[in-house]
Design a protein that fits this description.
The structure holds two protein chains of two kinds. Chain A has helices spanning 44-51, 74-77, 95-101, 109-116, 123-131, 148-160, 178-189, 239-245; strands spanning 4-15, 18-29, 33-37, 59-64, 67-68, 80-83, 166-170, 203-208, 219-224, 227-233. By secondary structure, chain A is α/β, with parallel strands linked by helices. Chain A has two domains: 1-75 and 205-246, Rossmann fold (3-Layer(aba) Sandwich); 88-163 and 176-199, P-loop containing nucleotide triphosphate hydrolases (Rossmann fold), CATH 3.40.50.300. In chain A, strand 1 (4-15) and strand 2 (18-29) form a beta hairpin. Chain B is an all-alpha fold. Chain B has two domains: 9-47 and 294-500, Orthogonal Bundle (MetI-like fold), CATH 1.10.3720.10; 49-292, MetI-like fold. Chain B has 22 helices and no strands. Chain B has helices spanning 8-13, 19-28, 35-44, 52-86, 89-94, 99-114, 117-128, 132-156, 160-169, 173-209, 215-224, 228-251, 259-286, 297-300, 307-338, 342-357, 360-367, 375-399, 404-411, 416-454, 457-467, 471-499. In chain B, helix 17 crosses helix 18 (375-399). The longest helix of chain B is centred in the last third of the chain and has 39 residues, at 416-454. Chain B is globular. Classes of the chains: A alpha/beta, B mainly alpha.
């Protein structure tokens, strides 16, 4: 049975004269947890942006559940959630308002309006913020007043609240201390809801720099100069693989 | 020989060179017949007329001014925000609308704001006759376009990555739009919108000079009858109104977390939109436009305007703008730099306040008491009024600036004036010039007012053409005006961008 959820077919992406992604083919199956390795500027962020539809590839096709990404409706596209390396939070909004933004896809305009006026319910947002070990004293603080680690966890909570089955994350453990990294990693890779009940296995592609965090991943993809150099099971990862990409 | 190198500081002073041709013409045009009147005008400032009758008139006229000013501000700020949204990049990105529409709406708004509210007022008065509503509509038309530009500029500063992030959540488009623009809109309203109320009141006063009503009309009538004591009563009462409104507006803080206040503002927003539409329709259907039969009349009536004369008027308008801008840029730093002590500062601040307070046409009429009408005199009036405005900004920035460099220079034995120039002003010069670039846009539009009063440039021609209902000429003059203002805005935009 074909259980591919995300597929890249011969993807290339050119920005000005630079070829950022070069003929990439990739299949991500349901429930797979994949670590994406590569040095800075290797094309990891661009690959994630192509996978979530933010960037249209110059060549090739992105498929979600075997359908072309272009042809999917808003609801179907919202099955993917992304944690960006630069977080991309709305600076003027409070932490809880930002987390609630993750619910915009499943709600109407009135919800967005209430969120801005602070009259919507923040119950769900608070639960996810608590899961991310965010203290309630920062819930109503504006993003610009938070520390790097707090901002990182707000972005993670915003992603988790979407309760999507497919997670794309670009270095999500930045700014976090080792204890928090363990907690957050569990939250991201195990598909938990607010009640901490496990649901269907989550599919995840996480861009990483730290090799000590590879333990919970099934596969490892190595990328260099916009090309996939290896796509192997984690247990098969050898020093020689890493030398190719670093 | 070393090459001359221009920096922001020297560029701030260089435009004062316009005073050489200007001064030459002004000295040649002096006539001594009106010095007594000018003297009387100055003395009356310290002895305004105060009796029951005039106090009642002041209250009545101020009420009219506040009403016109407030309603035109409310409508223009709300519609300005709406047009600001639909003329911002973010709107077109979220809704995937082709950029063609973005360019069209921006161009349309540029044309609308290129024509001064006084010109709109005179045109509407000519079509519909004198009417209280004309004042509100005349101010609203360009103000909506001006406000929309400011709102759009603020919305352009929204981080593109935030947009991508919200877009990736795949929220409904209106929800994404609202979440992204809410705070920039509120912040713009707080930082800029409240200040526009003061602008609205000033514009109401200027329109009053042309007969719309309010305190402006009383100022003009008292000037015409040379009742300077009455004139100063009106001017001082206007000063009190502006100072008080400024103090009140400073106290207002729009708290977005206050739910009741937010709901109240949203209610005001929607009621204003509904009211404006219904009132506009009522106005259109209940007013005769006898002097303006159809759009086709714009092209049918003959024009006596010769090409040479027309080009001369355009050139006059451009020179008028350049001379006024030169004065408005260079006079404040020059005067503040030369008279750089605490007592002089207070005097300069009061003088600058008076220049802002007295409408340009009144400054021009006052100067006309001892000088023949000329392009230089019109430029001086417009330049002085705007120098009052640029000096306010310069004072505010200089007062809030870190003075360590200035103190350090003085401690080295450098003179006070040089220390001020290099230790204080040089750090402000760049942002000051950027603001002046924006101010010169306004000066170009204001040439219409001084043109009408001082018989100079296209403003004068517009008045003549309107008086004789020569609609084709009116159209030609407006196109020329608009073109000058648009080209000016483009040049100033480039200058401003290179400075910021």
């Amino acid at each position: 049975m074909n259980n591919t959820v995300l597929e890249l077919e011969n993807i290339s992406y050119k920005y000005k004269n630079d070829l950022i992604l070069n003929k990439i083919n990739l299949k991500i199956n349901a429930g797979e947890k994949i670590a994406l390795l590569g040095k800075s500027g290797s094309g990891k962020t661009t690959l994630i942006s192509v996978l979530n539809g933010t960037i249209k590839p110059t060549q090739g096709e992105v498929k979600l559940f075997n359908e072309s990404f272009e042809e999917l409706d808003r609801k179907q596209k919202s099955k993917i959630t992304t944690i960006w390396q630069d977080l991309r939070l709305i600076e003027d909004l409070s932490a809880e308002q930002n987390v609630n933004c993750g619910l915009l896809a499943e709600n109407n305009f009135y919800f967005a309006f209430k969120n801005l006026l602070n009259i919507s319910s923040f119950k769900k947002a608070h639960k996810y913020m608590k899961l991310c070990r965010l203290h309630n004293s920062i819930y109503d603080k504006k993003i610009r007043k938070l520390s790097g680690g707090q901002k990182q966890r707000v972005a993670i909570a915003r992603s988790l609240i979407q309760e999507s089955n497919i997670l794309l994350a670009d270095e999500p453990f930045n700014n976090l201390d080792p204890k928090l990294i363990k907690t957050i990693k569990n939250l991201l890779l195990e598909n938990v809801d607010v009640n901490k009940t496990k649901k269907s296995p989550k599919t995840a592609l996480v861009a990483l720099h730290r090799l000590d965090l590879l333990n919970d991943f099934d596969k490892v993809i190595g990328i260099r100069d916009g090309k996939i150099f290896f796509n192997i099971k984690r247990d098969n990862l050898k020093k020689i693989h890493l030398e190719k990409i670093y | 020989m070393n090459k001359l190198k221009l920096n922001y500081t020297s560029l701030s002073f260089l435009p004062i060179l316009v005073c050489i041709p200007l001064g030459y013409q002004l000295i040649n045009n002096i006539h001594f017949g009106g010095f007594r009147l000018f003297q009387e005008f100055l003395i009356s400032a310290f002895n305004p007329k105060i009796d029951n009758e005039i106090i009642i008139t002041v209250i009545k006229r101020l009420n009219e001014t506040i009403l016109i000013g407030f309603f035109s501000w409310l409508v223009s700020i709300i519609f300005g925000a709406i047009f600001g949204i639909i003329s911002s990049n973010i709107f077109y990105k979220i809704f995937n609308i082709p950029n063609f529409f973005y360019s069209i709406i921006r161009f349309f708004l540029t044309i609308i704001r290129s024509i001064h509210e006084v010109v709109w007022g005179i045109i509407l008065m000519q079509i519909y006759g004198i009417n209280f509503s004309i004042g509100i509509i005349a101010i609203c038309i360009p103000y909506i376009a001006v406000n929309s530009k400011v709102f759009a500029e603020q919305l352009e500063t929204i981080d593109y990555k935030s947009f991508e992030s919200i877009n990736q959540i795949n929220a409904p488009k209106f929800s994404s739009l609202l979440s992204l623009i809410w705070h920039p809109i509120i912040n713009t309203f707080q930082n800029f919108g409240l200040y526009r109320l003061e602008c609205s009141i000033r514009s109401t006063v200027i329109l009053g000079l042309f007969g719309i009503g309010g305190i402006g009309t009383s100022i003009f009538l008292s000037f015409q009858t040379l009742s300077f004591r009455e004139l100063w009563t009106y001017l001082w009462s206007l000063a009190i109104l502006i100072i008080f409104s400024g103090l009140i507006l400073k106290k207002i803080k729009f708290n977005t977390t206050n739910k009741i206040l937010s709901i109240f503002f949203i209610a005001v927003f929607f009621i204003t939109i509904l009211f404006s539409f219904s009132y506009f329709l009522y106005f259109i259907f209940n007013n005769n436009s006898e002097n303006f039969n159809s759009v086709s009349s714009l092209f049918k009536s003959s024009s006596d305007l010769g090409l040479f004369d027309f080009l001369k008027l355009i050139l006059e308008t451009i020179i008028l703008s350049l001379l006024s801008t030169g004065i408005a840029i260079s006079l404040p730093p020059l005067v503040i730099g030369i008279f750089n002590n605490n007592s002089s500062k207070i005097f300069i601040k009061i003088f600058a306040f008076l220049l802002r307070l007295i409408p340009t046409p009144v400054i021009l009429l006052t100067l006309l008491t001892f000088n023949n009408p000329s392009l230089s005199l019109a430029a001086l009036s417009l330049g002085l009024h705007n120098a009052g405005i640029t000096s306010k900004l310069l004072f505010t920035n200089l007062d809030s600036q870190d003075k360590r460099n200035y103190i350090a220079m003085k401690s080295l034995g450098i003179s006070k004036k040089t220390s001020w120039l290099l230790g204080l002003f040089s750090q402000q010069a760049k942002s000051y010039l950027a603001y002046c670039a924006y101010r010169s846009d306004i000066i170009i539009r204001e040439t219409a007012i001084v043109g009408i009063i001082g018989s100079i440039g296209l403003g004068w021609q517009l008045q003549e053409s309107l008086s004789s209902f020569a609609w084709q000429e009116v159209t030609i003059v407006l196109i020329a005006y608009s073109s000058i203002a648009i080209v000016g805005e483009l040049i100033n935009g480039k200058i401003k961008n290179s400075l910021t």
